[in-house]
Design brief:
This protein has 604 residues and is an alpha+beta fold. It has 4 domains: 186 residues, Ribonuclease H-like superfamily/Ribonuclease H (Nucleotidyltransferase, domain 5, 2-Layer Sandwich); 96 residues, GIY-YIG endonuclease; 147 residues, no CATH class; 85 residues, no CATH class. The protein is 38% helix and 16% strand. It contains 21 helices and 15 strands. The strands form 4 sheets. Strands 3-2-1-4-5 form a 5-stranded mixed sheet, with helices on both faces. A 4-stranded antiparallel sheet has the order 14-13-12-15, with helices on both faces. A hairpin with a 2-residue loop joins strand 2 and strand 3. Helix 14 crosses helix 17 and helix 18 crosses helix 20. The longest helix has 28 residues.
């Protein structure tokens, strides 16, 4: 079917024997092939070395439904040289509207002997293999081809697609051409073949238009096929002006920092491929308004190469915490974390504090905000009779009781109606037990309260208690997981690297102290020895996050808990309480999902 003219094979007249075509299971969406992240051609391939297949279709009109194609014309070129031609009429299996015949000159009689699309597709798909597909108004042509593949069971190869109409809108001004129609562009570039609304003629004209447009791209510093595809898309002037900032960056895991003219960090990010990730900020896929504003202020991009993804994530967190870049939203202020602790004294109460002291023995956290801590505190107040007043109570002097005592919500230690021992057993001890090991009594009390409220059809109040239960469980599960890791003086772990060898991490008290990658085919022990010798010295401290932020320790936990990660060495055992909060994870998921009607059945 690869010819210089039109290929045709005999088929019977459609009115007599062409079977009805099934409806295609296809919905036209945005063209993935227009995204430079897909397809088999390397986006860094220079334009002069790229193989293009320029295609044009004639159809019966209408939306892509798997049929309707009447002619395909395709020309394969590379470096300005024609490599091949594919052209054929196609029997669409349906009558041709008269206006299509007037427009294209293709008649019903011409299509009777032509092959149907299902016979044409194998040759066409082979013809476009390993090439960039080019079309004028590409979404239309590619949409018909994808629909035909979907209908007849052929896999669409999802090639990279370059739209000459979109490219012309970026390259040519209104002063040069009044519109971007193929005929107008053909006249402007003085193509050897004029478009005639026949597939092969239009494809050949598009080839000359493509070459003319590529000649104009050099002035825009567009030299590769990936750059050309992105240039054709609707990027902002700022993105186009600043895209040189992505040049020369390494294709390795690490952290990238957008810096202003005064070297101030504007934005910090991480990626397993710094060059590819930074380049994406200058594409049409980046639509965030704050990033657009950041790009306008950025003057350079700094890359910090890392051994592997875990080190990159940790360095990102530390840089954001240290510099608080204005365009980062998360992880900026770890010092704003708060704790919920049990105060000292004969009648302790819950207090929200910024820091823990070595004398604090019962606490919960850290919480990302005061509101989150208050929600958990309300959960404990619903479950156990902890006093909520802020007075310093004396064992000698009686203080007037508040309304909570009159409502039966407080045992009134201010009036000495309960001894310190009784108060500790009924109120303080459940908090200590819940945070350090087993939150079962608190969970049971909150579930019972939800049951009562639900039976009384006080559903809004039940939902409030449910949210408090979720806050308590979320905090206890998190703290116990963190404490189990940060209690280990030193831990070494390994994970297979993508390119062979092992990713190695040395963790001390929940802080990443060292990282590296052992070479493929070499035992990782020497690399681990070197990492340990050069690792950061980390001293332990008080609380579940003594040496790092909670977010850093959680990133490490996530890396360690992956199935492919192997624990190599530990200074002590890694364990959580057998009756700890972790066994309530399913209940927590239901509470967070709002499934209050299921909570009363959970008594883990």
């Amino acid at each position: 079917m690869v010819t210089d003219g039109t290929a045709a094979t005999g088929v019977s007249d459609r009115g007599a024997s062409v079977p009805p075509m099934a409806q295609a299971e296809y919905v036209q969406e945005s063209l993935a092939g227009l995204d430079p992240a897909v397809g088999g051609v390397d986006p860094a391939l220079p334009l002069y070395a790229t193989t293009f297949v320029v295609v044009d279709l004639e159809t019966t009109g209408g939306a892509p439904d798997g049929g309707g194609i009447t002619e395909i014309g395709a020309v394969k070129v590379r470096g300005g040289e024609q490599l091949g031609v594919l052209a054929t009429l196609v029997n669409p299996g349906q009558p041709i509207p008269p206006f299509i015949t007037v427009l294209t000159g293709i008649t019903q009689a011409m299509l009777v002997p032509a092959p149907p699309i299902e016979q044409v597709l194998p040759s066409f798909l082979e013809f476009i293999d390993d090439a960039v597909l080019v079309a004028h108004n590409a979404p239309y042509d590619v949409g018909f081809l994808k629909a035909a593949c979907a209908k007849h069971g052929y896999r669409w190869p999802n090639p990279r697609v370059l739209d000459t109409a979109a490219l012309a809108r970026r390259v040519l001004t209104r002063d040069e051409v009044p519109n971007r129609k193929l005929g107008t562009l053909a006249a402007y570039f003085r193509t050897a073949t004029q478009p005639t609304h026949r597939a092969l003629d239009d494809a050949k004209a598009t080839v000359d238009v493509l070459h003319g447009l590529i000649g104009r791209l050099g002035g825009h510093r567009v030299d590769t096929i990936g750059d050309a595809i992105e240039f054709a898309r609707a990027v902002t002037p700022t993105q186009r002006r600043k895209r040189h900032l992505a040049e020369g960056l390494p294709k390795v895991p690490g952290v990238y920092i957008f810096r202003a003219a005064d070297d101030r960090p504007l934005y910090v990010g991480t990626s397993v491929d710094i060059a590819t990730r930074v380049r994406s900020y200058f594409t049409a896929g980046e639509k965030r308004a704050r990033i657009s504003e950041m790009l306008g202020a950025a003057e350079r991009v700094e890359a910090v190469e890392c051994a592997h993804s875990l080190e990159a994530e940790v360095r990102e967190l530390r840089l954001i915490a240290a510099h608080a870049p204005p365009y980062n939203r998360r992880s900026k202020y770890p010092e704003r974390m708060v704790w919920l602790k049990l105060t000292d004294g004969p009648y302790p109460r819950l207090s929200i504090v910024r820091d823990l002291s070595p004398t604090d023995t019962a606490y919960l956290g850290p919480f990302t905000s005061r509101r989150a801590a208050e929600l958990a505190a309300a959960g404990f107040h619903d479950a156990v009779p902890l006093r909520q007043c802020t007075h310093r109570l004396s064992l000698r002097t009686v203080t007037p009781a508040c309304a909570l005592a009159e409502l039966g919500r407080c045992p009134a230690p201010c009036e000495h109606k309960i001894t310190p021992e009784e108060y500790d057993d009924s109120a303080a001890a459940p908090f200590r037990t819940a945070t350090a090991s087993d939150p079962q009594p608190v969970v049971d009390a909150l579930l019972a309260r939800i049951d009562v409220l639900s039976r009384d059809q006080r559903y809004e109040e039940a939902a409030v208690v449910r949210s408090r239960l979720a806050a308590v469980l979320r905090a206890t599960v998190r703290m116990q997981r963190l404490a189990a890791l940060t209690g280990i003086v030193e831990l070494a772990a390994a994970r297979p690297a993508a390119r062979g060898g092992w990713e190695l991490a040395l963790v001390r008290h929940g802080r990443l102290a060292g990282a590296g990658v052992s070479p493929p085919g070499v035992h990782p022990r020497p690399t681990l020895t070197t990492i340990r010798a050069t690792a950061e010295t980390v001293s332990g401290g008080h609380g579940p996050v003594p040496a790092a932020t909670a977010e850093e320790s959680e990133r490490i936990l996530s890396w360690l808990e992956r199935p492919e990660t192997r624990l190599v060495e530990m200074s002590s055992g890694w364990s959580s309480p057998a009756s700890g909060a972790g066994r309530f994870r399913d209940l927590l998921a239901k509470a967070e999902g709002g499934a209050s009607h299921q909570l009363s059945t959970e008594r883990s």
